[in-house]
Amino acid sequence: MSIDADPTAPADVPHHSGALGELVRFLQVVRLRKWTLVACLLVAGAGGAVYYATATRIYESSAEVLVLQTGGNVLDQRDATPKTIQDQMPTYQRLMLSDKVLEAAIKSLPAKHRIDFEGVPKTKWTQSLRSRMSVSSARLTNIITLRCTSKNPQTAAFVVGAIVESYLRFMAETNRNSSQETLLLLTRKRDEYAQILDEKESRLHQLKSQSGILLSGTNEHERESHILAERAKKLNLALTDAVQKTADAKAFYEAVAFAVNSGGDIQQFVMQLADVVGREVLLKELGLGTQDSYTLAKIEQELIADQQSLQNLLGKLGPAHPDVVQLESKIAATQRYLSNRNIAVAESIKQLSANELGPRLLKMAAQRYQQAAAQEEALRQQFDQAHAQALALNSTLAELQRLENEVSRIRKYYDTILDQMKNVDFGADNSLRVRIVSEPKVLLFPVSPKLSSTGLLALALGTVVGLGLIYVLDAIDDRFKSPDELKWLLGLPVLAMIRQIRETGGTGIQQVLTYARPDSAESECFRTLRSAITFCAGDTQRLVITSTEPGDGKTTTLANLAVAFAQAKKKTLLIDADLRRPGLTQLLELKGPRGLSQVLRETAPIADSALENIFHLGVENLDVMPSGPRPANPSELLSSERFNDLLAWAESIYDQILIDAPPVLAVTDPAIIGRMVDGAVIVIRPDKNRRKMVVRAVEAYRNTGVRVLGAVINHLGDVGQEYGYGYGYGYGYGYGYGHDDATDPQTGGDDGGDDAHELQPVRRAA
């Protein structure tokens, strides 16, 4: 008999979860159930073949129509562009499917081309024809493509031609006499806007006349200005100059008055005043004008003329010429006269006493200041009046601006209407043109059904149905399908695969296969498991064996593994730590008052207490510590420090320590024990355990920090069969005190008497 085992299983296998893990697992399921998928594909293929052979052949014909717009929106030339006609293509497409076009086309069809209307009420012929038509237009083009299907290829082509002819007649009737209507509309609009424009321009001219608007400039960008505004600007400039002159006259007057009153030098003010009022006027005011101003001016003019003549003579004659010398002497005499006169005037001013010059100079400065102030006041009054009048005109100017803008806008619209009227005159009845660019043709190849499309559809349908059926079957049968699937989902190596074991027929240790029939093929599975554990990385001296649910065979697996270790000359200790349902104790018939619970409750030294509660079954290198009396608090006992001390003592005595623990999902005891040992081995029955439960158990074990060495697949059937037979096992959380072992004396029950073999405890030095 062949043995299914994996002696070289790796110590660590990557754990895959999430979407990728589910996908890989599902692909494995598909591989296992590939014949289901093949059957669905065959059925779908057969259905597709039947459909293709029996389906009615449908033929198609098409035509293309070009739509051109030579005009546009009658009120906006910008609408007559290619973009406009492209925007209107959906409208033209809808018109081709309109009832009026289709009804006219149906009326033109002869009886032999009405085969598609057989069995259809006449009132629904239009709807039936529309359902067999399709109208489309390529993006950024003015071409409409019309397609129609029929049971007969000649009928398809004839119907397309009839629809196109009906559409052309409809468009021609719609556009007939459109130019006359357009021209009439434009004429009414032109007259309306002409009247409005005349009214606005008359109002504008009237308002300009009333407000006194003047135009300056000669080109088309004339600048408008108002009389009052111009006058206010000029008065403002004059007022500014007058204010400055008044300030200067006042400052001069105050300076002269201060000099006169303080007895200062007033000669400097004489020349300043001469620059303002004139030298002769000043001398006359001071009583020094003894020479005739006319004579003085004439002498100065003669001096200038003589100087000019001298320059001319020097250009012709030498400097020693008598005429040149004579003219130079005359010029020098004239200059001396003028210079002496200035000196004489200055001397005359100096000879005036302070009492005479000061009052005269102060009077002249006062008169100058008074004249400047009077002129400033007069200009200020004129400016204020002009400014007030200009402000009052602001509302009129705003109204003028509004009217001008409105007149400009209406005139532009009026000019646009005139241009449109010219276009209508030159291109009457040509605003829209529709032409056939591709005639309908008779195509003898059907468009439905297509062999390629039918085949692809059958393939897709068969694949979808097959995968869906596999998914449903997999959801119903939630068990592991292969060791690879188990390793992939759990992330654990498969340490060994154990076939279904036949009963040995003995009692106690005789029920253990590796002891009763050590040379059998089934016993080799447990030696394979022993080797796999030995080759695992890290320490494996202290191991706990558990399962997902009760009945998975963990106790049987543990007992056979212990015998296999003992046969390998390893001193082995078996501990039944399942204090609730001690399967190992029942298997080996060791029920009694002594055992693990007794050791954990005693206060005696751990070595003495352990030796009192360990039994030897007659197998070399193998000792057993049963569970002992049933305690009321198994979790508290297993999590105590004394249990840890027990393991430490056993580690110093034995080469291998194997602990039987309750199922992982039933109670917390396996997690408590798992944290105290080197590793854990999980026994799984694929024919019984559900995937979700096993995954949950392994995850729960990992989350508590327990090192899981791997899994043992137990209870395999015949070679080549899939795992499982469709039955399950519900356990819930009812795993508890369901055995009939001896009752703990401390709980008030009886001790249960002697064990079956009356075995004596092992007594050896610690």
How would you characterize the overall build of this protein?
The protein has 766 residues and is α/β, with parallel strands linked by helices. Helix content is 55%, strand content 11%. It has five domains: 18-55 and 449-476; 59-176 and 429-438, EIF_2_alpha (Alpha-Beta Plaits), CATH 3.30.70; 204-288 and 360-425; 290-351; 491-725, 3-Layer(aba) Sandwich (Rossmann fold), CATH 3.40.50. It has 27 helices and 14 strands. The protein has an eight-stranded mixed β-sheet with strand order 7-14-13-8-12-9-11-10, with helices on both faces. It has a four-stranded antiparallel β-sheet with strand order 2-3-1-6. Strands 4-5 form a two-stranded antiparallel sheet. β2 and β3 form a beta hairpin. α19 packs across α20 (554-567). The protein starts with 17 loop residues before the first helix and ends in a 50-residue tail after the last strand. Residues 1-14, 72-80, 214-224, 425-429 and 719-760 have low confidence and may be disordered. Residues 23-109 form the Polysaccharide chain length determinant N-terminal domain.
List keywords for this structure.
766 residues, alpha/beta, Alpha-Beta Plaits, 5 domains, four-stranded antiparallel beta sheet, 27 helices, 14 strands, disordered N terminus, identical protein binding, EC 2.7.10.2, membrane, non-membrane spanning protein tyrosine kinase activity
| Rg | 63 Å
CATH superfamily of the largest domain: P-loop containing nucleotide triphosphate hydrolases
Q: What is the subunit organization of this protein?
A: single chain
Named CATH topology of the largest domain:
Rossmann fold
Return the CATH class of the largest domain.
Answer: Alpha Beta
Summing up helix and strand content along with how strands pair, one would put the structural category as alpha/beta
Q: Outline, from the CA principal axes?
A: elongated
The major beta sheet can be summarized as: 8 strands, mixed
| Secondary-structure arrangement, i.e. CATH architecture of the largest domain | 3-Layer(aba) Sandwich
Flag low-confidence runs: 1-14, 72-80, 214-224, 425-429, 719-760
Determine the N-to-C terminus distance: 44 Å
Return the average pLDDT rounded to an integer: 79
Q: How many structural domains can be distinguished in the coordinates?
A: 5
How much strand?
Answer: 5-15%
Strand order of the largest sheet: 7-14-13-8-12-9-11-10
Helix content: 55-70%
